[in-house]
């Protein structure tokens, strides 16, 4: 089974436009950035030399939009934008740039920072004029995805156009049908006795207070294991309750819905094969409409019952261990589990 680090993805967008024509009203067309996100760009751009991780749109002979997909662990917008803007100083076109405006924005699930610069580009030879370049850098985040955006226009102030394109980035509707808690209200859930873990997207009722097992995380790191897991645990009156969440964002980034479904199915198949090899009792079934593997094992007179399933790009394992009345404790525990995003 592949283990991978929980990371964020980066999409780098580069636009360079050379134009001395009279400015016309701009119209926009929606384009795919990847399977999950779209962007609206000026309609005169056409696709040129695309592959899975790199997209190029051109307009005329000297205008283009370049998109490259990468990964990142950081979620600090200010740090990312400063590092990205500073890294461009080595380019001749961006030398001596001066900051003229900064814009912070939030739009539905998007948040971002846009930096606007101007820079003088001096012509060489008699009769050539000094042109002004209009430069834009931005960092935009949406959940686990981050976009680094770069644009430059020579002698054509298009700050409004670029800003509109940046803010147009949006998530496409996910076609995978998955059961989640409807109309989630955190305060109401807590009043009803749920423990809510919004960062990992679930809530559950439990006899004791589930906490992130940081010791186990540290032990896994020291053992050289992937740090993509989030283990929660509590020991209450002789009963162990465990929930483990593993992220496969890196492995499944950019994959189609069908590819994600196939990966999830194969992962469950893999677990069943290993359980069979270890003579661990298991069976395939449904857990709240999820395809799931149920398994149980007895060690030191204590019975462990568990269910393992996938949701989007994560796997979930719910487990109860005790030496008495395990069936009911396990059933009560997993029946209250809900995905909230």
Give the low-confidence spans: 1-21, 174-180
Our count of helices gives 7
> First CA to last CA: what distance?
25 Å
What gyration radius follows from the Cα positions, in whole Å? 26 Å
| Shape call | elongated
Strand content: 35-45%
Class of secondary structure makeup = alpha+beta
What portion of residues is helical? Answer: 10-25%
Q: How many DSSP-defined strands?
A: 21
Give helix and strand order, one letter per element, not per position. Answer: EEEEEEHEEEEHEHEEEHEEHHEEEEHE
Strand order of the largest sheet: 4-5-6-1-10-9-8-7
- The biggest beta sheet, please? 8 strands, mixed
Determine the mean pLDDT. 79
Describe the structure.
By secondary structure, the protein is α+β, with helices and mostly antiparallel strands. Helix content is 21%, strand content 44%. It contains seven helices and 21 strands. The chain has helices spanning 77-87, 159-167, 186-191, 214-222, 249-252, 257-277, 326-335, and strands at 8-18, 28-32, 37-42, 46-47, 54-59, 63-72, 98-107, 110-121, 131-142, 145-154, 170-171, 195-197, 202-204, 211-212, 229-236, 239-247, 281-287, 290-299, 302-311, 314-322, 338-339. An eight-stranded mixed β-sheet has the order 4-5-6-1-10-9-8-7, with helices on both faces. Strands 14-15-16-20-19-18-17 form a seven-stranded antiparallel β-sheet, with helices on both faces. The two termini are 25 Å apart. The model is unreliable at 1-21 and 174-180 (pLDDT under 50).
Describe the SSE topology.
Elements: E1 8-18, E2 28-32, E3 37-42, E4 46-47, E5 54-59, E6 63-72, H1 77-87, E7 98-107, E8 110-121, E9 131-142, E10 145-154, H2 159-167, E11 170-171, H3 186-191, E12 195-197, E13 202-204, E14 211-212, H4 214-222, E15 229-236, E16 239-247, H5 249-252, H6 257-277, E17 281-287, E18 290-299, E19 302-311, E20 314-322, H7 326-335, E21 338-339
Parallel strand pairs: 1-10
Antiparallel strand pairs: 1-6, 2-3, 3-11, 4-5, 5-6, 7-8, 8-9, 9-10, 12-13, 13-21, 14-15, 15-16, 16-20, 17-18, 18-19, 19-20
């Amino acid at each position: 089974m592949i283990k991978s680090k929980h990371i964020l993805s980066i999409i780098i967008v580069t636009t360079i436009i050379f134009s001395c024509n009279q400015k016309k009203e701009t119209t926009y067309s929606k384009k795919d950035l990847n399977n999950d996100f779209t962007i609206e760009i000026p309609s005169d751009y056409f696709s040129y030399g695309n592959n899975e991780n790199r997209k190029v749109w051109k307009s005329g002979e000297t205008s283009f939009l370049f998109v490259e997909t990468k990964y990142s662990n950081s979620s600090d917008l200010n740090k990312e934008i400063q590092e990205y803007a500073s890294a461009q100083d080595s380019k001749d076109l961006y030398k001596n740039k001066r900051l003229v405006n900064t814009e912070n924005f939030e739009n539905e699930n998007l948040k971002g920072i846009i930096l606007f610069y101007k820079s003088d580009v001096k012509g060489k030879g008699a009769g050539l004029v000094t042109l002004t370049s209009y430069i834009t850098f931005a960092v935009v985040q949406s959940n686990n995805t981050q976009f680094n955006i770069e644009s430059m226009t020579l002698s054509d102030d298009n700050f409004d156009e670029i800003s509109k394109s940046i803010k147009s980035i949006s998530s496409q509707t996910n076609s995978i049908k998955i059961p989640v808690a409807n109309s989630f209200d955190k305060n109401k859930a807590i009043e009803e006795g749920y423990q809510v873990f919004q960062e990992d997207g679930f809530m559950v009722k439990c006899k004791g207070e589930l906490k992130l097992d940081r010791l186990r995380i540290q032990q896994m790191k020291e053992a050289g294991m992937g740090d993509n897991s989030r283990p929660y645990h509590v020991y209450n009156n002789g009963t162990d309750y465990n929930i483990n969440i593993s992220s496969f964002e890196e492995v499944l980034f950019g994959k189609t819905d069908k590819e994600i479904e196939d990966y999830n199915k194969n992962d469950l198949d893999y677990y069943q094969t290993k359980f069979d090899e270890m003579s661990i009792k298991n069976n395939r079934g449904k857990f709240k409409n999820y395809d799931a593997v149920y398994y149980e094992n007895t060690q030191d007179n204590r019975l462990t019952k568990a269910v393992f399933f996938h949701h989007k790009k994560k796997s979930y394992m719910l487990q109860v261990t005790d030496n008495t009345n395990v069936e009911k404790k396990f059933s009560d525990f997993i029946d209250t589990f809900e995905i909230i995003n």
